[in-house]
Every structure is written in structure tokens, then in C-alpha cells.
């Protein structure tokens, strides 16, 4: 048996440290000067670190940070946002990275999505195109136009409860925070659709702890997604002894436990729940429970259903409430558009000119001005403003004329492309008519660059459900009340809490337009 001397061990250790240092220095030099990405504009620190992006995330302005970088580099198609990440701001990049067809086949979801896989892979978090396609096959019918009709009783039930609360404010004409009540509405509604029961927040007039946990858990996932350890990101970040990080991690654990308990309760009751008509309850979660892949016979197990539940609550509750908020804000700031919309609603519903009851989506769906108002809000204020990252194919790819090597996370931030003046003239103006007055070619480009619900095969599958309750809410509010901002000259900015929200609270005043009910 041969033993190494102490001096030999020491020499090997010294050599290992020296080689590690040399390797680290070599990587730094390569990233700073020789990498194909080194020529791209962006803060020099992004060549070697994610610190600039992490700081922007911590200060609630990551999407704005990237948009500012494009503004600082006029004409730039691509900006380097990290050692291995690039953001694009060009229509061709949208098609190349997210579009259908062979050109985008090699762009798989990046390791960032692993941070959003909780107890299993949801349709949002799974990186496998095969698994995503299978999941989408299984539940696509749950979000079809026909399914919307089965969900509408739950939407109408929650809308009626919401309007009764609004009537109280209208009678006193007391200024109040309508966004706060939108959040309560969407939380109760998604509880009905995703868990089989509401949270009781509209009745209580205060949010459930669950809603706060959702936001904090998403912030934890976003922070962990910036780490370079892939599927280990969440575990590694959970070890970081920083109080703010530990608070977010504990919120994630509590959030997952809440979803587990709620889903277990849903499983016990799903066989007994029926509508007043006596028919079985057919909400979104019931469809997920029953879903079966027609090709393989696969059904989601409890952990996957739990992950889908968590994803649904974020996608529906958070994004829906903030979109309704921006719609009311812009309609109040643009009284001519609001008046035109009210006139169209009155003509469509001559027997319900004052919004006494929820309006059917099958009719509202034909109001192009209402649709375009929603599109314009989502263009300016896409709930997720930063880029949804995809990895370039192993052999690299030319994106909008810029070569990017393989394995680099690339994406198009909705907040940046949505205000690109070459795509949307006068981009900072809220103008719903741009969606009807633009020529055919310009309109096609605008639609390509609209990322309010994502793009391509991975866009939000719940788009129809969200649009349903958003337009029903806005239409009934406009018919039922005169809605005015308390502060006439109010100008709202954005602050990013994963979801892009207003940067300050504000109040509205309601007055009943017709006789009291």
C-alpha cells in the first residue's frame, strides 16, 4: 500500500486551488472579451454576473430595467442581461423564439422554469415539449368556448356578490380602492373554479392570507431562477441565511401546504357537488381531475393536480384583477372611449340598460371596442413584463440577424416589445382604435408582438376564461355605474411584484346610473 506524504497532499491541494483560480480567471476573460455575447450592448457586469438583474428584481423593476437598457441603446435588437441571457426587442425575435414551426423547434424552456415546479410539473413550468403537448391535449377541452358556458354560472354568482358591494359604495358615493375589490373578486372566483369553493373574501371585505402567499412564493421562484444551478436553484436559495429570502421561502412552503389541504378537501367533495339544476359541478378542477390523455390514457396524479392548482391561482387571480384595474383607469382617463363603449352596450342590451344582472359573454364577445380596450391594456401592462426565457439550440441560432451560441437563455420582454415604436406608433398612448384602424400588414405585426397572454404553443391556455370574466366585469360596471377617478389628474406608474401592478393606490367614486335595485 502506497501512502502520499503530507507534502504531496499539500502540493496537490495547492495545484487544485491554482487550477481552479486559473479556470475562473479564464472564464471571466472569455465572457468579458471573447464570447460571441461580449459584443452585445448591456452593462459590463452582466457579462459575468446576474447581480444587475437581481438588483432590479429586488427593487421591483426588472421589466423596466430591461426596457431602459433598450432605450439607452437606440436601435439595439438585443441586450445582454446576464452571463448567459439575452433579451430581444424585435418582431422577428418573437417568431423565432416563441413561434410555431421548424424555426422555433429547438428553443426549449430554460432552467428558469424549474424554480416554478412545485410538487410536480404544471403546464407552465414543464420544460418538456412532449409533456406540455400531452397536458394540453388532456385539458384543452376544459378551456374551449363550450366549456366557458359551464363556467359562467360561477362567474355570475361571484359577480352578483361583487356588485352588491359596489352598490353600497355607490349609495354613499364614498371614494374607495376598486383594485383592492377586484383582487377579492378574482380570488373568490378562482377559488370557485380551481378549488370548488370561494375563499369568502368578498363577504369578509379583506383578503385571505393565501393571496399574499401566492405573491411571495412567486417572488422566491423568480429569485431562485436567477441562480446557475438548474433544478437545484430552489434548494440552494433555501439555504441562504438572509431574512428576506427565508421569509419568501417559508411563504412558498405555506402556500404549497395550503394548496394541498384545499385540493384534498376538493377530492373528498367532488362527487357530491352539484349545481342547483342537479347536474354535476363542472368547474376547471373537475375537468382536470377527469382529464385523460387520449393517446396514452395518462391521468394527472395528486401532486400534478396540486401543481396545476397553484399555477391556476396565480394565472387567474393575479393577472385578471390587475387587468381589470388598468381597464377602469384608462376608461376613466379617456371619457370619449368610455362613452362610446357605454352606448354600444346600451344598444346591445336595451332591456338591461343599467346592468341589473351579469351580461352574457356570448354577446359581449361581439363588441370589438371592448375587446380592443382589453388588448390595449395588456399591450401597455402585460401582467408578466419580463422575458419568458428559452434556450437556444445546441448549434446556436441567428435571431433577428444576431447570432447567439447554443444554450443561451433568450426571450422577448412583453413590456419592451409592447412599447416598441416601430411596431406600435405613439406607443405610450392608450389607443384601442389602433387595433381596428391599422392596415393589414401593420396589424399582423402588432398581433405577432402582442405578448399579453404569451405567444405560440405555450401561450396561456386560460386566455378565454380570463377574457370572459374581465369583459363581463367591465361591461356591467359601465352600465350599472358612473365611474370616476377621485383624483382627476391621476397618473399611475408601474411597480413589479412578479405581476406588474400600479405604483400607488388610488380611489374611484361610483354613482348608480339607473334606479336602485
Automatic annotation (TrEMBL):
Cross-referenced InterPro entries: Cyt_P450, Cyt_P450_CS, Cyt_P450_E_grp-I, Cyt_P450_sf, Cytochrome_P450_monoxygenase
Pfam family, one: p450
Keyword terms: Heme, Iron, Membrane, Metal-binding, Monooxygenase, Oxidoreductase, Transmembrane, Transmembrane helix
GO molecular function, one term: heme binding
Top-rank taxon, per record: Eukaryota
List of residues binding heme: 460
Membrane-spanning segments: 12-33
Cofactor: heme
Family designation: Belongs to the cytochrome P450 family.
Protein name per UniProt: Cytochrome P450 monooxygenase
Top-level taxonomy: Eukaryota, Fungi, Dikarya, Ascomycota, Pezizomycotina
Amino acid at each position: 500500500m502506497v501512502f502520499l506524504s503530507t507534502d504531496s497532499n499539500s502540493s496537490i491541494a495547492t495545484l487544485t486551488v491554482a487550477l481552479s483560480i486559473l479556470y475562473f480567471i479564464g472564464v471571466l476573460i472569455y465572457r468579458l472579451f471573447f464570447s460571441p455575447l461580449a459584443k452585445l450592448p448591456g452593462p459590463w457586469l452582466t457579462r459575468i454576473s446576474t447581480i444587475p438583474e437581481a438588483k432590479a428584481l429586488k427593487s421591483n423593476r426588472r421589466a423596466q430595467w430591461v426596457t431602459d437598457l433598450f432605450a439607452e441603446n437606440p436601435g439595439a435588437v438585443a441586450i445582454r442581461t446576464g452571463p448567459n441571457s439575452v433579451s430581444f426587442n424585435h418582431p422577428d425575435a418573437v417568431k423565432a423564439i416563441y413561434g410555431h414551426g421548424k424555426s422555433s423547434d429547438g428553443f426549449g424552456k430554460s432552467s428558469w422554469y424549474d424554480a416554478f415546479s412545485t410538487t410536480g410539473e404544471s403546464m407552465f413550468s414543464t420544460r418538456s415539449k412532449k409533456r406540455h403537448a400531452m397536458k394540453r391535449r388532456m385539458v384543452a377541452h376544459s378551456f374551449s368556448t363550450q366549456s366557458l358556458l359551464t363556467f359562467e354560472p360561477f362567474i355570475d354568482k361571484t359577480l352578483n356578490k361583487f356588485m352588491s358591494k359596489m352598490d353600497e359604495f355607490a349609495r354613499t358615493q364614498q371614494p374607495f380602492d376598486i383594485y383592492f375589490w377586484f383582487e377579492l373578486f378574482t380570488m373568490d372566483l378562482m377559488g370557485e373554479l380551481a378549488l370548488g369553493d370561494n375563499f369568502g373574501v368578498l363577504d369578509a371585505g379583506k383578503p385571505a392570507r393565501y393571496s399574499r402567499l401566492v405573491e411571495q412564493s412567486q417572488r422566491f421562484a423568480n429569485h431562485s431562477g436567477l441562480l446557475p444551478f438548474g433544478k437545484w436553484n430552489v434548494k440552494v436559495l433555501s439555504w441562504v441565511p438572509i431574512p428576506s429570502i427565508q421569509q419568501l421561502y417559508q411563504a412558498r412552503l405555506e402556500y404549497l401546504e395550503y394548496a394541498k389541504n384545499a385540493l384534498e378537501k376538493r377530492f373528498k367533495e367532488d362527487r357530491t357537488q352539484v349545481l342547483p339544476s342537479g347536474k354535476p359541478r363542472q368547474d376547471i378542477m373537475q375537468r382536470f381531475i377527469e382529464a385523460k390523455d387520449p393517446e396514452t390514457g395518462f391521468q394527472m396524479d395528486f401532486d400534478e393536480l396540486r401543481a396545476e392548482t397553484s399555477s391556476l391561482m396565480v394565472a387567474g387571480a393575479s393577472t385578471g384583477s390587475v387587468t381589470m384595474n388598468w381597464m377602469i383607469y384608462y376608461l376613466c382617463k379617456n371619457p370619449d372611449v368610455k362613452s362610446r363603449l357605454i352606448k354600444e352596450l346600451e344598444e346591445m342590451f336595451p332591456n338591461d340598460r343599467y346592468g341589473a344582472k351579469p351580461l352574457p359573454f356570448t354577446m359581449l364577445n361581439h363588441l370589438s371596442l371592448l375587446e380592443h380596450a382589453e388588448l390595449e391594456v395588456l399591450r401597455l401592462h402585460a401582467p408578466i413584463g419580463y422575458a419568458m426565457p428559452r434556450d437556444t439550440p445546441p448549434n446556436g441560432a441567428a435571431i433577428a440577424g444576431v447570432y447567439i451560441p447554443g444554450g443561451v437563455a433568450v426571450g422577448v420582454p412583453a413590456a419592451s416589445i409592447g412599447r416598441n415604436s416601430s411596431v406600435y406608433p405613439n406607443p405610450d398612448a392608450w389607443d384601442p382604435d389602433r387595433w381596428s384602424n391599422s392596415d393589414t400588414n401593420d396589424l399582423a405585426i402588432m398581433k405577432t408582438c402582442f405578448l399579453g397572454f404569451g405567444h405560440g404553443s405555450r401561450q396561456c391556455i386560460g386566455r378565454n376564461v380570463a377574457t370572459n370574466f374581465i369583459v363581463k366585469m367591465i361591461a356591467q360596471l359601465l352600465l350599472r355605474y358612473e365611474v370616476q377617478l377621485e383624483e382627476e389628474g391621476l397618473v399611475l406608474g408601474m411597480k413589479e411584484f412578479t405581476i406588474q401592478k400600479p405604483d400607488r393606490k388610488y380611489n374611484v367614486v361610483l354613482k348608480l346610473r339607473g334606479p336602485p335595485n
